[in-house]
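Exercise 7b. Backbone tokens:
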């Protein structure tokens, strides 16, 4: 029975793989087919799944299923069918296999909370992800941390990431890594810091004009502040409507709500957070500044923030700053890819027409700029990087 199920599941994955190849690649050559000729709407996959986006690489789904079936025993289960997590991990494996077969990955970007460390915690020196990131640096990959945490001074980022920064500095001292390319893009796409062995806290601030995309230069400061004003009004409305024990926190490129400090500090419910995200997003979508300035409204676990820009702009900015890295050579690892209050989704979809992002201000932000891997916790990030190394060594 298990052998028959394994065969059927593998055949299904093979058929889906063929659909993706038809949508993106020729079945016989690694040349673009429907995408190349601008006829994506005619692909069978697009007809079956109208919302499907653009693929940056092929996906070896059949091989990935076989790999995961050996570990998760999917086809050996009698009563529990393939789950959401099974499919998520199969897709991750398919993406890793494709990336390693097309050559070395030039850039790996990470979310912060829940991806590198537990929510609200810091990246301490005993975190198991640190030696994996050092391994990527030794192999020549660049590293970017694209986080919602928006700070204007290096000390605040050092507090959150000191374990990694100290480890990279030690690796430079010991000559294990030469000229490591490690950057932090905070506030989703607003503040850039670069690793500098000689700088205080090992981080050097990079002026915005140095790394901004051409499209970002068109954003007017008056429109940015107008959008934040509208967002602040929407947040105040949510506080009043749901009787939230919350206070407004306004920054130069973001606005949000956080619990009122002091005794009896409230833990917001998931439903309250998601309602606040969706209400604020809808109000901004219908507003005049919301049609001019890209933004990201997201649930931060026990807060809600609206940032100017989003992670698609953040990852694209990393790619440009590090020398024009292709999207097919970039992997973003994150935990928020769901439809409500998430901020990683837009890294995946296409930004062939950057102006479109002005009208796609959904909270699913990370799938617009590169390939992605969806993890659920920091332990999965460690496992993913070990799997990436395994696939790389097998090539």
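Sequence design result:
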């Amino acid at each position: 029975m298990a052998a028959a199920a394994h065969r059927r599941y593998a055949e299904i994955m093979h058929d889906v793989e063929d659909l993706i190849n038809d949508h993106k690649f020729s079945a016989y050559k690694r040349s673009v087919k429907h995408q190349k000729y601008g006829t994506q709407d005619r692909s069978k996959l697009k007809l079956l799944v109208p919302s499907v986006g653009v693929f940056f690489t092929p996906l070896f789904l059949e091989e990935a299923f076989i790999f995961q079936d050996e570990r998760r025993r999917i086809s050996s289960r009698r009563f529990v069918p393939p789950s959401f997590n099974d499919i998520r991990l199969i897709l991750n494996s398919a993406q890793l296999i494709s990336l390693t077969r097309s050559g070395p990955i030039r850039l790996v970007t990470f979310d912060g909370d829940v991806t590198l460390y537990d929510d609200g915690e810091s990246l301490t020196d005993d975190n198991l992800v640190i030696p994996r990131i050092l391994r990527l640096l030794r192999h020549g990959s660049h590293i970017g941390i694209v986080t919602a945490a928006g700070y204007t001074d290096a000390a605040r980022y050092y507090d959150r990431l000191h374990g990694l920064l100290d480890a990279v500095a030690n690796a430079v001292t010991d000559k294990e890594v030469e000229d490591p390319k490690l950057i932090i893009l905070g506030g989703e796409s607003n503040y850039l810091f670069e690793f500098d062995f000689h700088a205080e806290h090992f981080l050097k601030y990079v002026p915005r004009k140095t790394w901004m995309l051409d499209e970002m230069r068109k954003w007017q400061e008056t429109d940015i502040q107008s959008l934040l004003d509208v967002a602040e009004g929407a947040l105040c409305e949510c506080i009043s409507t749901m009787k939230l024990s919350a206070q407004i926190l306004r920054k130069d490129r973001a606005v949000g709500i956080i619990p009122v400090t002091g005794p009896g500090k409230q833990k917001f419910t998931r439903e309250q957070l998601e309602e606040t995200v969706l209400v604020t997003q809808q109000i901004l979508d219908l507003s005049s500044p919301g049609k001019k300035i890209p933004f990201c409204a997201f649930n931060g676990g026990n807060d809600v923030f609206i940032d100017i820009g989003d992670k698609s702009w953040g990852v694209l900015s990393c790619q440009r700053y590090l020398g024009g890295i292709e999207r097919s050579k970039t992997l973003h690892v994150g935990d928020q890819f769901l439809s409500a209050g998430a901020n990683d989704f837009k890294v995946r979809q296409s930004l062939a027409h950057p102006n479109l992002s002005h009208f796609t201000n959904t909270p699913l932000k990370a799938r617009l700029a590169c390939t992605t891997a969806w993890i659920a916790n920091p332990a999965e990030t460690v496992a993913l990087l070990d799997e990436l190394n395994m696939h790389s060594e097998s090539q």
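Instructor comment: The first strand starts at residue 107 and ends at 110. The CA atoms of residues 137 and 148 lie 23 Å apart.
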